[in-house]
């Protein structure tokens, strides 16, 4: 705007000085009906300028009066709010489309119209995604609530520099307790705890993550299983006989949770407690707490009487069930009964050639010295 006024001033000066310099000021004739007005070009320009200034002053005065009325306040307020919302929506779309720098500018336009803490928070995030940490912190400083600022600053810092995790651990623990409904905070906390192997903290935070749907169902399942498995292994390394008391202290809901039960079965197997692991797996399968495919994928189908009996009885009712055939094939492999294993696994592979069953079958052939069939199964498995 400043340069525009300078340009106008230069043009006006040219109009005034030019005619004087040439010695011919020229004239302007204005005819309205029987009325005629004749004046010099310079005087006409001056009158136009004065008229423009007067009109601008009148328009501003009228606008000020209008703005003070109830209708004016409402109309201009709604207009500004709508423009701010449009800018915010545009910024959000740019952020989703992977253009954080443009999104940061659009959030800035929205903030210039209506100063909302949420706008500043999103602008800070967009600036951080664009790599401008200083601008991000400047946006955070505009958030009025100290608590909101601390949460946003912590999230931003840990996203930009994950190596600060240990320094901000205590603060992060306090914030997650004070703000359990902040999705971004919970997600950052989970990532930080994983980085620092704080499995007990993850277990405490997982119910909030599930309630807020911070993770996909698959991510929630895997993280639950991993966190509980890590804690159980730590207990087992200290004293294996403490695993059962720890398991019994869990709530009934936790003990029936598939990922937690899988973690416990895997831990029992890792410490050679196969009988306890097999009983637990068999009872979970009978109640429907576990799916057989989860045990097969993790190679947790063990040669234990109760589990083997359940699988054999089930196979009598469903002789072509691929999962049952695969599970019995894995048990046969553990017993080094390669002939039985190859029959069961071959039947399973013929009906549903999954990668896992083909790999198990390839290993079976390898153990029997049939390298040609083994190589063929490995090749098929790589295609799956």
Task: Note down, in words, how this protein is organized.
The chain has 384 residues and is mainly α. Among the domains are: 1-68, no CATH class; 228-300, no CATH class; 318-384, Serine Threonine Protein Phosphatase 5, Tetratricopeptide repeat (Alpha Horseshoe). Helices cover 77% and strands 3% of the residues. The protein has helices spanning 2-22, 41-68, 70-96, 100-113, 117-129, 133-140, 146-160, 169-178, 183-196, 199-212, 217-238, 243-249, 252-255, 258-270, 274-287, 292-297, 305-317, 322-334, 338-351, 355-367, 371-383, and strands at residues 27-32, 35-40. The protein has a two-stranded antiparallel sheet. Strand 1 (27-32) and strand 2 (35-40) form a beta hairpin. Helix 7 (146-160) packs across helix 9. The relative contact order is 0.03. The mean pLDDT is 84.
Q: Nutshell version of this structure?
A:
The protein is mostly helical and 384 residues long. It has 21 helices and two strands.
Which terms summarize this structure?
Serine Threonine Protein Phosphatase 5, Tetratricopeptide repeat; mainly alpha; single chain; 2 strands
